[in-house]
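does this look right to u?? DGJ version
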Amino acid sequence: MSIRFDGTRKLFFLESKNTTYQMKINKMSVLEHVYYGARVGDTDMSYLHQYLDRGFSGNPFEQRAYRGCSLDLMAQEYSGCGVGDYRINSIMAVSENGSRSCDFRYKGHEIKPGKYSIPGLPSVRMNRDEMETLEITLADDVIGVQVKLLYSVLFDKDVITRSVIIKNIGCRQVQLEKAASASIDIPYGDFDLIQFHGRHCMERQMERVRLTHDIHVIGSKRGMSSHHHNPFSILCDHDATENNGNCYGFMLMYSGNHKTEIEKDQAGSVRVVTGISDDNFSWNLAAEDSFYTPETILSFSNRGLNGLSGNYHRAIRENVCDIKYLDMKRPVLINNWEATYFDFDTAKIISLAQQAHELGIEMLVLDDGWFGNRLDDNAGLGDWFVNEEKLPGGLKKIADEINALGMKFGLWFEPEMINENTKLYREHPEWVLRDPDREPMMSRNQMVLDMSRKDVQDYLYDCISAVLDSANIEYVKWDFNRSVANVYSNLLPAEKQGEVAHRFMLGTYALMERFTQNYPNVMIEGCAGGGGRFDAGILYYSPQIWCSDDTDPIARLKIQKGTSYGYPVSTMGSHVSASPNHQTGRETTFKTRGIVAMSGTFGYELDLNKLSEDEKEEIKEQIEEFHKYYWLIQKGTYYRLTDETQETYYNAWEFVSEEQDEALLNIVVTDVHANPEFPHVKLCGLKVKSTYNLEGTDKCFTGAALMNGGYSFGAMSGIYPCEQLHFVEKK
Ligand code: DGJ
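got this back:
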């Protein structure tokens, strides 16, 4: 089993296929974090922790005779606050008398079969894996706060999940001002921090910096996980590459405000604390009340960044997303957004579907503009009933005609939002998040509904279900197009306003849960102005997320590559759009756009009327190719072949089947040169001794040749030239 407790040495072992995670109850009953890394067998790794009397790092009262013992230097599993550990704390608990101190001691533990779940929050599912739960109880008896630290292990995927239940076990009120999901102390190492920052239309840009003696903060206060800082970060050896070196991943399964803090302390140890952001957060814990933190998904690999990504890809496909999508082929779609924007009617949509059908496209998604008085992006949000003037016969007519072609029909919603000029706002202005005495901050001319309210959730459920029941709608694109501000709920008293941001997320998840339970045949595509909520929380409800509003394939190379460090391509919504591209004005070939979009959930988003017959033929061929490689791309092992930190003029990546009997090699040259150096890559993941044929040629190579010698593409010229090569094992 993957979890055990050695009572003699007071050591907890969490073991996965390639990793060991150790904790120890020390003499003071503090739960120490001992080790996380490659497997180490049965050795008690606490020999690594050496204590020294360091000036200004004080000593707990009971250890006052021994100055070598300090909470400030101890590697801890979940640190308290205000009692002499001056590093980042895991919790901030304020007692009724104003005291801000909390000091945890071990009280007991249980190892239970199965995986824990978290009330109201998405968490890793057990599905086909065998899992256990370790529940360690710590408490501070003075303030009356208990924390239950929860752990589970995905053995084959080298993934450990963590969450915390914080309970008021006293008889007085406690105010939580910080409640992290996990804290990890790593005593040795020379690390780089990798994080994924960005902005609208340029999400998840990888940034790698060397850790220095300071505190790095990655987070969001936008009420969404955000385009700006993804809730996923990596610590890796300074010399780690895509295929070598130790890498730790920290992924928060949460779609709201988050914060990950990384501190390198006076002794060179590194502490990582991750969880809900403590900015604008507080939670009122009455006696006996509990607070549940979101889950953190940890992983370690000593096989470099590709190894770490592989762990996350498998865990997300099989244990975060609903498992039913694992073996379900998703339709190649056309979305009308960049084809028509708001300028459409029934005839235009049906004609788009007819043309799409002739090319082999399998689903049409009707985007923004079908409801209320939504003629542009200034009005209509909240009035979720069809605009019959624009679409006479309603959605049923459109869905029926599309179904008659043999295609599926999908529809866009933006449930959490509201415009001023709507029936909904006229009837329920109190449903908006806004300060009582202040005009709300506007963005895209819209406001945000108070999702913490049950009546708001019920309204959205009822009116969206009425739409879903009115026609055969098999896909919903769930959008979210602004950052949240004026986080104030009319229903809550002053002392609970710090809870609104998290209650907003709980309300959103409750609504998503209701739809996924009651409409199991409707697949949700997550979206937030592109990839503003690209996180494991949303992936629990929707197996794919629109990756970015930038559909330019050259910009997408970086966006999708950045996304790939934590998330599999099966989650990345990616479409072929028009050239010149609507966001950047850049011209690219159909082939380049196709290769990039195929490394995601494939679709089209352009006006088919404007295409030449040759281009239509290209679409047909692309779709055939995509079907041919579907499972290799969606379930194969993904390898980045070009190192982001090196200046390269090309970008290459590869998919290898689970059986290692085929590989799909992709390359796009982003900067062509006369008299060029030849793009050259070393493939990964093949069988050393097998021979692989380059399909369509009589060229054969051993796996060892392709992995050690590599493959050279020769000179490539033209507009962002690209290649997609299929290597098949000769049996
Ligand atoms: C933002 C999305 O990312 C786009 O694809 C599109 O759906 C628009 N919203 C519609 O308003």
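The CA atoms of residues 359 and 621 lie 9 Å apart. idk if thats expected tbh
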